[in-house]
């Protein structure tokens, strides 16, 4: 099963993507997580990506495509995957289609998690991330078991630089300009499904499962 998660930064697509990946036993591929991992490990790729990410800008398509095409070669992708944060531009979506077409393959579902900008700005200010394993929490709605500490690896949780309010506003602007057109792109292919992303995490998950199981 090959699934794309669409939605603005902070819409909650990462949280849902992880659950879907667990449910269908397929990898959750987050390009943002891969970049953050590279930044942490101070790789060449990380160094190149950091400047863009800290400003709330998109990393250039060539860099993202190189990274993702390499990831697809891993054996765990044979059963499918949930893509979170990729594609983020029309050229990325077309490159993905081309790569899949070569193998007579295609994306089956594009799930759009729909949340208004004002809600997102409020949410992101309360979001806390584990820079070790990539999991995210929220000071009000998704608290870790021990305050300020990741449930899975005990790492201290932080407000990511790119979740700071001024960066979030820039990321939303970039989202509307460059990523939102993908909603029409996948709608035209007949595989777009929008879910309301403002309710409880469990309810949103149920809506998505309904889409994927019917
Ligand atoms: P995310 O965690 O998905 O919100 O990604 C964090 C940041 O990583 C984004 O704001 C971009 O700077 C960069 N990034 C992640 N995925 C992509 C992508 N597909 N295309 C361009 N930049 C990306």
In N-to-C order, the SSE pattern is: EHEHHHEHEHEEHHEH
How are the strands of the biggest sheet laid out side by side? 2-3-1-4-7
- List low-confidence stretches: none
> Could you name the CATH homologous superfamily of the domain at 2-27 and 74-116 and 172-213?
P-loop containing nucleotide triphosphate hydrolases
Q: Between the first and last Cα atoms, what is the distance in angstroms? A: 13 Å
Helix content: 40-55%
What top-tier CATH class of the domain at 2-27 and 74-116 and 172-213 fits best? Alpha Beta
* Overall mean pLDDT: 94
Report the sheet-strand fraction.
5-15%
Rg is: 16 Å
Could you describe the largest sheet, including whether it forms a barrel? 5 strands, parallel
Structure description:
With 214 residues, the protein is an alpha/beta fold. It contains 9 helices and 7 strands, in the order βαβαααβαβαββααβα. The chain has a domain at 2-27 and 74-116 and 172-213: Rossmann fold (3-Layer(aba) Sandwich), CATH 3.40.50. The strands form 2 sheets. A 5-stranded parallel sheet has the order 2-3-1-4-7, with helices on both faces. The protein is globular. It has helices at 13-24, 31-40, 44-54, 61-72, 90-101, 117-125, 165-179, 181-188, 201-213, and strands at residues 2-6, 28-30, 81-84, 109-114, 127-129, 136-138, 192-196. Strand 5 and strand 6 (136-138) form a beta hairpin. The longest helix is centred in the last third of the chain and has 15 residues, at 165-179. Helix 2 packs across helix 3 (44-54) and helix 6 (117-125) packs antiparallel against helix 7. 48% of the residues lie in helices and 14% in strands. The model has no long low-confidence stretch (mean pLDDT 94). The structure holds adenosine monophosphate. Adenosine monophosphate is lined by residues 9, 30-32, 35, 52-53, 57-59, 64, 85-88, 92, 162, 171.
